[in-house]
Design a protein that fits this description.
This protein is mainly β. The protein is built from four helices and 28 strands.
């Protein structure tokens, strides 16, 4: 009919990408402080101040400020951030973005000098384990340690952060078949899903792949994913040219089939004025004649000694009756009176006279017996 088609192949892929997360992507010291170190891969410790003994001079009383800037890139992966320990001589304040979070002694809360005598004559230590995570939102934050020194002194504070460095997977479906699936001129012809053919020649095979488990690795990251499928390979049959010939009018044939019977033939034809003319006439099938119900045969048998030899000896010597039968089938004829004549051979005896014989059940029993006997055989000497 002048119709042209193309086979177009496309794929639907499940793409999984793993992005390794670095500690500095979560939290990093960008300025200030004097040290950053890691005791484990997923921890970071940030130190600020002047820890060397008597490294600060205060005279009668003087305030020294030490600041450190932390850049928080991903607060969701910042598991914890705590002010774990500090040392000072003589008064200390810890502030985050200007807000006071700790003072030791607790009476010093203002921006000026301490409310008491500055010199306290020794180095003091604290282990507050103070939670700073609520203050460390996304962005940059200033950690500020202030120490009031009388005479000579020192100060140091340590912030310990625990990080979530697990893989960051991104998953998406890349469907290159969407255009063909939406096109009315295209029909799905073949499809293979993870190596299992689910469509063949436009017909579903009824097969469905089992869920797949795949391991994805990228640098230090690895991730095992279970999904119903990962790859679909499709082929669409698309009509690209309908040609110039008109489609055939099948309405007349449909009318004949729908309105005719075994004895009546109906018809409908289109007239010159565009109308339809219907007619019907008697109809009979020609006589098909008669044929015999079957080809008549008869069954005979003749005795046969079991002289076959196996590795264990002569077969007949292992049997109670060392003889069997050969079975023969002969074509025969039945006369008009219904009597038949079987051509029995030499040494044969008649088993079934001439007629329509059906030994199919017997053949099935014999084959099943051989099959089950073979299934019960073993190839070792072990008793079972």
């Amino acid at each position: 009919m002048g119709k042209a088609e193309q086979i177009r192949a496309c794929t639907v892929r499940r793409e999984v990408k793993l992005e390794a997360v670095k500690a500095d992507d979560i939290i990093a010291r960008t300025s200030g402080g004097y040290a950053t170190y890691a005791t484990t891969p997923d921890t970071r410790s940030f130190l600020l101040g002047s820890p060397r003994d008597d490294s600060l001079s205060g005279g009668s009383c003087r305030i020294h400020d030490f600041r450190m800037t932390l850049d928080v890139g991903d607060p969701d992966r910042l598991v914890s951030a705590r002010l774990s320990q500090y040392l000072f001589d003589d008064w200390i304040q810890v502030r985050v973005d200007g807000a006071l979070v700790l003072a030791d002694p607790g009476g010093w809360t203002g921006a000026g000098l301490p409310p008491g005598k500055c010199e306290r004559k020794k180095t003091w230590y604290g282990y507050p384990n103070l939670d700073l995570k609520p203050f460390l939102t996304k962005g940059t934050h200033e950690i500020w340690v202030r120490v009031a020194v009388g005479g000579e002194g020192e100060v140091s504070a340590r912030i310990d952060a625990t990080l979530d460095l697990s893989c960051n997977p991104t998953e998406k479906l890349v469907d290159l078949c969407a255009g063909y699936a939406a096109d009315a001129n295209c029909q799905l012809h073949d499809e293979t899903v993870d190596g299992v053919q689910t469509f063949r020649n436009g017909v579903g095979t009824g097969l469905t792949p089992l869920p797949q488990t795949r391991l994805f690795e990228s640098g230090a990251c690895s991730l095992s994913l279970v999904r119903p499928w990962f790859d679909r390979d499709r082929r669409y049959r698309c009509t690209i040219d309908t040609g110039v010939l008109p489609q055939p009018d099948l309405s007349r044939g449909a009318y004949i089939i729908d309105h005719s019977t075994e004895t009546l033939l109906a018809d409908r034809v289109k007239t010159s004025d565009g109308d339809y003319s219907t007619s019907s006439r008697a109809f009979t099938l020609p006589d098909r004649g008669s044929v015999p119900a079957c080809e008549p045969i008869c069954k005979t048998r003749a005795p046969k000694p079991n002289t076959g030899v196996a590795p264990d000896g002569v077969v007949g010597s292992r049997q109670n009756t060392p003889s069997g039968w050969d079975t023969f089938y002969h074509a025969c004829k039945i006369d008009g009176a219904g009597a038949g004549s079987c051509p029995v051979g030499d040494g044969e005896e008649l088993v079934s006279d001439c007629g329509c014989l059906d030994d199919f059940p017997e053949a099935i029993v014999m084959m099943q017996t051989v099959r089950l006997g073979g299934a019960d055989m073993i190839c070792t000497s072990e008793s079972r």
